[in-house]
Amino acid sequence: MIQGHPAYTALGGLTVVAAGTKKFLRFVNQAEWIEAAELDSENTKIWGEDKWDFTGRDDISDIRFTLSYKVAGSDVFSAYSKLGVEDLEFGVRVWNKETRRRTWHRGTLALTKDKVLEAKFDSNLDLQLTLAKFSGQIEIQPLVVSKADVLTDHNRLVPIRRGSILGWSDPIVIDLDKTYTGIGAIFEIRWKSFSEDPVLTDSFFSAAWSSNPVLYLNEDHEELKTVLMSEATRGPAARLRDVVNSLVAHQVVSSALTAALAEIFQLSKNQDPSAILENLSPQNEAVLRQWGWMLCQRSEVTRLDDIVADLVEEIESPMGEIIVDAMVVRIQQEFRTEKAVLNLVGEIAGGQDVK
Predict the structure, then answer these.
(1) How far apart are CA 14 and CA 44, in angstroms?
(2) What gap in Å lies between CA 123 and CA 64, rounded to an integer?
(3) Residue 144 in contact with residue 109, Cβ under 8 Å?
(4) pTM of structure
(5) Distance between terminal CA atoms of the chain?
(6) What angle do CA 46, 52, 57 make, to 5 degrees?
(7) Binned average pLDDT, 10 residues per bin, the chain of 355 residues
(8) Which stretches of 30-129 are DSSP H helices?
(9) Which of 100, 137, 246, 348 lies in disulfide reach of 337, CB 3.0 to 4.6 Å?
(10) H helix or E strand, kind and range, residue 62
(11) Contact, 332 vs 338, CB < 8 A?
C-alpha cells in the first residue's frame, strides 16, 4: 500500500466511481459468470469495499471485475505544464507475495470535456484471475504513472522521470487463505475521511454493524494512518501502533460484547438457551462466537451453545455482576494491552521491550 503523498505529485488520490465498479465470479465446473449483485447473502459476504475474502471457497474457480476512478485534471495539468493525457498511463499492479509474482496490467485513461480524468480497468481484457494459480493474498493496486521521458513539476521544481507514480487509489486485497485474529476476525477495516460527517467529529474510528461489519478509521490524519499501517516490529512507530490497536480493540470489543449480553438478557426472560440461540441477531452471534468466552465463568468455553447456556446461568445468578469485571481483564489479556503500553513506555524512556 502506498503511504503518504510523494512531494512530486499533484494528482494523489483517485476517487472511486461506484457505478463503474462491478465484480463477477465463476463457480468450479461452470461456464457462466455471475455478478456479485445477483448472488445470495452467503456469497455476497465475500465482497467488501476493498477486501475480497475467498478463504475456504474451493467452489469458486475464477473472478473478474471492472474498476472506475476519476480525478479533477485542472490542477494536474497546470502543475505539470505541457503534460497531456497521452503522457499518462492508468493500470493495476498485481502482487502475490507468496508466489513473489508482480505484474502490470493496463487500463484506459481519458479526459472529459469538463477536464476530469476518467480511469477504467476491465480485468476481462488483460488479467485472468484463476484462484488456484495464486495463494495467500493478492493485492491489486490502481496507479496512474508518467509515460513522458521527463516532466517538471513547476509548483515544486521537481523533475519527474518516466514511470513515476502520479496517482493511486487504495488497493483491493483478495484473501485466499487468511487466518483472522483480533478485531479483524469480524470487522473489515477501511479508511475513510471523517471531515464531512458531523457525527464523527473528534473521533478516529467508527464501527458500522451490518451483515458485513466494518471498522472505519479516519484517514484525515496522515500521521495516524502512517503509524497504523506501519509493518515495523521494533521502534517508536511499532510501539505506538500496538497501543492504538489495543485502544481500538478495547472499545470495539467491549461495546460489542455488552450489546450481545444485553440481547441475551432480554431473550432470557421468556426463552430457554436453545431458543435464544435461534433468535440471536447475526451480529451478536458473530461476536459471541469470536469473543463470548470473555464473558463466561470458565474461559475455556468456546462452543456458541455452551457460551449462551453459561451466560444465562450467570444472568440468573446473584453473582452476575462479575461478568463485566471478567470481560475487562480478559480483553486486556487477549490483546496484550499491558505489554503494548509498557513497551511504549520503555521506548520513550530508552528502556527494553517487555518479554
Answers:
(1) 26
(2) 6
(3) yes
(4) 0.56
(5) 30
(6) 55
(7) 52 80 92 89 78 86 93 66 75 85 90 85 90 87 84 68 82 79 72 83 81 80 78 79 85 87 87 83 84 79 83 73 74 84 83 56
(8) 41-44, 74-79, 123-126
(9) 246
(10) strand 60-72
(11) yes
